[in-house]
Amino acid sequence: MKLDADAPAAAREVVARAFGRSATLSGQLPGSIGRVVCHERVFSRFSAELLALLDRDADVARPLVALEPATIEHARRGRELGLDEGATLVFSPTKTRASDDPAGPDAGIGLSRARMAEAILWPTVFTNVEEHMRVAWLGRPAPVLCLMRVASDERGAATARELDQDPLAEDLSERAGDASTEDG
Question: Is residue 1 part of a domain?
Fold first, then answer.
């Protein structure tokens, strides 16, 4: 997001594209976004708008059951990476909706409460994500959103291009191996 961008409009677009049921089925279809590269001077305003929208968004309040087992694993791995690498978790529901459903935990889909909790795709948002973190390199759509702060519009464009063009973006195990080799 550039310095001159309209923060409220940008936040609405990000929520719709990243977590909207009709647009992406909560990250299960191509087109979902996994990161926002944002100029540092509008980062706080954008983040506040984004979190306010997420708190009241109807699609976020009704997350979806995953259609593909690999999506569940990818989203779980993204959350683990974010936490392990020191990103700040700023949005994630604290409990499953299955326990809140008056019709029961397995109403309509035949899943136990444990399986339901595993199969639900909950939106997750991390901030303080840096370019070197593996969570920033997630290439496959998932309901995990990374907010990245940059010092200039030019640096933001370069960072986005670099992250989008990495041939290893979807294979996080290889990237982890590359990172450990570079450190040693």
Answer: no
CA 82 to mean position of chain CA atoms: 10
Answer whether 117's CB lies under 8 Å from 63's CB: no
Pairing outcome for strands 35-39 and 88-91: unpaired
CATH number for the domain including 57?
3.40.309.10
Give the per-residue pLDDT at 25. Answer: 60
pLDDT tens digit string along 75-96? 888 889 999 999 999 998 653 3
Tally of domains in the chain: 1
Neighbours of 156 (CB within 10 A): 21
Q: Is residue 2 part of a domain?
A: no
DSSP per-residue codes, 55-86: HH-HHHHSPEEPSSHHHHHHHHHHHHHHHHTT
Domain carrying residue 123: 7-183
Cβ-based neighbours of 81, under 8 Å, separated by 6 or more: 133, 134, 135, 138, 172
More confident position, 124 or 32:
124
Residue of higher predicted confidence among 108 and 1: 1
Question: Could you tell me if residue 47 is inside a domain?
Answer: yes
